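Quick board copy: two proteins, each given as sequence then tokens.
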Amino acid sequence: MSPLVRAVCTSGQRLATRRATRSSQRVFVGVCVLMFAASVAATLAHGASMAAMGALPMPGGWSMSTLWMPTCGRTWARAAASFIGMWIVMMAAMMLPSLMPTLLRYRDAIGSRASAQRLALLTMLVSGAYAVVWTALGVAVFALGASLAALALRWPALARSMPLAVSVVVLLAGALQFSTWKARRLACSRTTPSLPADAPSAWRYGLRIGIDCAGCCGGLTAILLVVGMTDLRLMAAVTAAITAERLAPDGALVAWASGAIAVAGAGLLLIQALSAG
């Protein structure tokens, strides 16, 4: 084969590879958009059902969501399963806008070393490991929340102190947004290391970005948990803040802005708690 023919063949192969990669990326983005739409719809439906169930008035002037307790004949196991299912759907709606660019960077990094089918498989492994981290976190959140709910139902003094505790949690979460630890977590979420195009590396990378993401979003997620997981407006605001600080050119500035809002909100909650007391 002459050098000219070889060059033409090589150029044709590269062009075909680029076209296949672009097609694969379009399919991936389309799947992400569909998953996001489905998770948002499911979250809205769940929020409507929780609003219809109401909440339990508690000493101290606050109400406890039925998320944290077995109701209507449900066992604790069913309550936990319901919470974890809701948690997974809600986290998909909240985290997909910032996770998709991370997955796109990963696909770009290994795309030249993997076929379209293998690239899809590795992307699924990364996403699966990421979901495992958030699911494990959901299990821990339910265990803690259910325990606190049971104690609050048993001890009125503890229930009366909850509004004050919520204001303290929001204050600490807001302060965390200004920390160098938060800045390091943001920096980690924006980098994609050089990785082999194999399954173990994909799984480990998914676990790593899941842990980094959970740490990076920990403060804002804590605010959502203590103020109200069924508040769709707060959920939308937290989602916007998480996405903006991960994708904006100056993510630290966005984190500081959301931290300032959280600290101000903590002040208002503190005033309300002291007034109620």
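And the next:
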Amino acid sequence: MKKSVSIFTVLITITIHFIFWIGIYFFYNYFLGYGSNNVKYVNRFSLFLMPITIFISYFFLYYLVPTYLVKKKQKLFILYSIYTFIVSFFFIVLSIFFGLVFSDFLKSEDITPITKGFLFIILGVYFVIFIVITFGMFIHNYKQSIKNEDLKNKFLQTQLQLKEQELKFLKMQIHPHFLFNSLNTIYGFALKKADKAPEMILKLSNLLDYILYQVEKPAVLLQDEIDHLKDYVSLEKMRFHDTLNVSISEEGNTENVQIAPMLLIPFVENSFKHGTIIDGKLKVVISIKIENELLFFKISNSTLEETSNETGIGLDNIKKRLEMLYPNGHQLKIEQENQLFIVALKVKINSLNILKNDH
């Protein structure tokens, strides 16, 4: 298939070149014979100018230009162009001489054979050569721009694929970590044969459905993320018993708001994992607010001053995902003060980079 397309392209190119030079031949007839009725003489004389015109034009177009000018060797291009001009001048004069000699028998006593002088004929040939080079350079630049655009698209596509693979890798890190904590909690309850174990399994089942199926979507409803966030908090409350104090507040209209899946839950997971029980309580405060097409998410947890939540898989992965999913549409602030570790996230709702999210 590719070979047939290539042959077709070559044939089209040859046809275009042939038609072009036929046009140049008629141009010579018009240019040299304007005002003359000796058509046969002019036709024959024009034929003698065609070979040298074609040769010089192609020599410039397919050798000097790509070898020196395109490769930015301007000095060499100018030097060899001067050499070519000198040599070509000799051959043009030779072509004119043979044209005059071998067309002499077609002269008529009362008819002027050609109406242009020696200098005009030479200028006419160089004018044609200049037109060919200019036209050829235009086509070359056009093809090069198409080629560069194609390379750019391939490069962007490769980058996109790499980003998608990186996102998948990050999710693979987040999900096992998340499930590991939850399964550990259920295992502890199962050992104690606690009555809450079935409820925990049901909540975990809902979370698994969200992780395995919904999370593969480029975007999910914010309300779904919040609902599953609450399920996760419920699981942790069962694990921590009375040592966990969590408050969740919602403000604004969350309907029809879409975000990247698993965007908020890892922050909550990180708070439980690295939070510290102080005075018998691990305090976690979660705030979710929608205002002016912006999502404001804030979470704080109790921690000791020497404890840093910013290490490990958790927040590092979250930062990378945010850079890929909301490259120019998020602000993440992390700070620690007064035995509180605080994470504040602001996201432009409509800035989700769907193309870079894994499908």
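Board note added afterward: DSSP finds eight helices and seven strands in the chain.
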